[in-house]
Amino acid sequence: MAEETKAPAAASSGESRPHSDRPERSGPPRGPRPGGGPGGPREGGRKFFRRKKVCKFCVEKIEAVNYKDVRLLAQFVAESGKITPRRLTGVCTPHQRRLSRAIKQARNIALLPFAGRAQ
To answer: Which CATH number among 4.10.640.10, 1.20.1290.10, 3.40.190.10, 1.10.760.10 corresponds to the domain 64-108?
Structure first.
């Protein structure tokens, strides 16, 4: 009887048992991931310098983003038809909002395509 009360208590004590459906990891330990980190391949080499992206609209003092300016808007639309995010284009937040609104207006009156070319 004493054994029967011990078994449920051990299961509920919070001890984690290894899953039987997962195989144990075997082989050599993994090294550093490719691309850097302490002890990585770029340790002694030149560091990659990324230039700070600046907002095209702020630099060129473009205050209003016009939905009729298709050449300008097309620079911020990917080939697939998606609006390029600001972390890729470098546009500041207020101008990105105006830009996305203008792209959506241009799409609705068929100046820009909703989707890119089919492959």
So the answer is: 4.10.640.10
